[in-house]
Amino acid sequence: LYLSSKSNMAFTLYSLIQAVILCVNAVAVLHEERFLSKIGWGVDQSIGGFGDEPGIKVQLMNLVRSVRTVMRVPLIAVNSVCIVLLLLFG
Known about the structure:
Elements lengths: L12 H16 L3 H5 L19 H15 L1 H18 L1
Helix pairs in contact: 1-4
């Protein structure tokens, strides 16, 4: 059997960056009313008492809201750069 020396499944820094961008895109498109409230992760489910430590669910919801708020414009630019790089270099 002849195997080519160039592997298409190489683990590179670029593929790691693409995986991170894909995960951030997945978090950024989650919709609270349509998806997250149906599984119990909506806005009204995360109300805690004064002085209580926020649980992991509340912290994850804050992370999702922060990613959607802060990363919206940078994600458009980063996705555009990745698309151009893929078109140019395959």
